[in-house]
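Typical record was shown:
=====
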Amino acid sequence: MDRNLHYIDLVYTKYSNDYLVLPVMADFSFGGKKLRGHAYGGVYGAFWMKARTEGTTFWMTDYYVYFDDFKESRQFNSEDQRLTAGGVGGLGLSYAFPDVWKNGGGPVITLDALYYHDFVSHHKGYSHLSDSRYLGTLSITLGLAFCF
């Protein structure tokens, strides 16, 4: 009989959280007229709107291993800290098409990488957790802006 634990590779949990975020940042810009670099720094406030988990779990008997898929929306309770705040910083590049620097208006392409880090734990004190939980998020954005 071949007994191995390869089934454990099938077990996973994926957490998804939705936040409404309001960042307030300073933008230090440097470079030429067409290609410019950006360094960002500031703070943000956020509201935790929705939380979901999905994945695969298992249970076993003496002879069989069973797998169950799950997908759940989280119900918030009084121990959840839904309002949060933190720091944000990052780097970016922007490219202005020739119309922008000749005529003062036109499209600009931007690429930014921002890191958000909580200063406030996302729980108020779960009875089964003794440590605080601080979230960090890396955001990479590609955008198109129009200057007037």
